[in-house]
Specification:
Layout (H helix, E strand, L loop, with lengths): L10 E5 L3 H12 L8 E6 L5 H14 L7 E6 L5 H14 L4 E6 L2 E3 L3 H12 L5 E5 L15 E4 L7 E4 H4 L9 H5 L2 H7 L6 H10 L5 H12 L2 E5 L4 E3 L38 H9 L3 H17 L2
Parallel strand pairs: 1-2, 1-4, 2-3, 6-9
Antiparallel strand pairs: 4-8, 5-10, 6-8, 7-9
Helix pairs in contact: 8-9
């Protein structure tokens, strides 16, 4: 599929105070095919307090040197917004004047065909009412023999290198006003947890104010509307943001580690019929079950102990 300049979506990159990983993200994005034809919007959050001030200044000085894109617009927050508010406001701002957007955070490395994949997928599914978003990330999965497509579907969105459309982003109930009734409905909670046993618990933490996650509210909207996310069979994104400074991933979680696409593939074959293929769904959901999450928490804990 050959895309014209008018069919390329703008890129929104969100950053705060991690200069080293930000540089890696930008370099990988610069190395993408289609980067020079794409508009890049960078959203720079402000310092929380005096401890962040110097590094945020350094980040912003670096951002002034970024090149390699058709147009670069830097949006400087005047006060600290936090990741959730930054993304909600930033994505909404881009979608006021664009029909779609590709979103990255400052701790993700992308493959050279990331923009090719996301732009083609956005164009492929733009009129499909069943698709909520495109994910650039995928767990390492075993692809069935003779599987002919470059994607599969799940009903759980990813926040690691993703894309969506204006008409799918609008009218989301970010306040989750029906949460009280949902929280009392055991059957609904069980259904929500079909794409991961952590879902209902994360939403409960969000509503209690224990976490501030835009992504779990995004996933809840997806559940309520019965929508799909398109995933690549080979990941186009790798997270490098584990450890100190990470907003939502404080410790290394090796279950998320995946090799990214090293091919030069430019054209992708997408399945037109959204469905849950049990061969993929079983592998995907297994990454979120309690047994797996507990195993990797213990593994990380032991690794940290052995460092001392």
């Amino acid at each position: 599929m050959i895309l014209t300049k008018h069919e390329l979506s703008p890129i929104a990159l969100f950053t705060f105070n991690r200069l080293n990983v930000l540089k890696q993200t930008v370099i990988s994005l610069q190395n993408c095919r289609l980067a020079k034809e794409s508009d890049l919007h960078i959203f720079s959050d402000a310092a929380k307090d005096k401890r962040d001030y110097d590094i945020v200044v350094q980040v912003r000085e670096y951002l002034k040197t970024v090149i390699g894109f058709k147009n670069i617009t830097i949006h400087y927050a005047q006060t600290n917004m936090g990741l959730a508010k930054s993304i909600l406001n930033g994505v909404s701002e881009i979608l006021k004047v664009n029909e779609s957007v590709i979103v990255l955070e400052d701790d993700l490395v992308v493959s050279s065909n990331f923009l090719s994949y996301t732009n083609q997928a956005l164009n492929e599914y733009k009129t499909n009412p069943d698709i909520l978003s495109i994910s650039g990330y995928s767990f390492p999965i075993k692809v069935p023999e003779k599987y002919q497509y470059d994607n599969y579907f799940t009903k759980r969105a990813s926040s690691w290198g993703w894309a969506t459309w204006k008409n799918k982003w609008e009218n989301i109930d970010w306040l989750v006003t029906d949460y009280v009734s949902f929280s009392k409905n055991t059957k609904e909670k069980k259904n929500f947890d079909k794409m991961g046993s952590d879902m209902s618990n994360m939403l409960a933490k969000q509503m209690r104010g224990e976490i501030n996650s835009w992504a779990i509210r995004w996933c809840y909207h997806q559940f309520k509307k019965n929508l799909y996310t398109v995933y690549p069979v080979v990941s186009k994104v790798m997270s490098i943001g584990y450890g100190e400074g990470a907003t939502n991933t404080k410790s290394g979680r090796s279950r998320y580690i995946t090799p990214i696409d090293s091919t030069k593939k430019r054209e992708f074959k997408f399945n037109q019929v959204a469905n849950l293929d049990k061969r993929f769904t079983k592998q995907f959901v297994a990454k979120f079950n309690r047994k797996t999450r507990t195993y990797y928490k213990i593994k990380t804990f032991l690794k940290n102990i052995l460092r001392f």
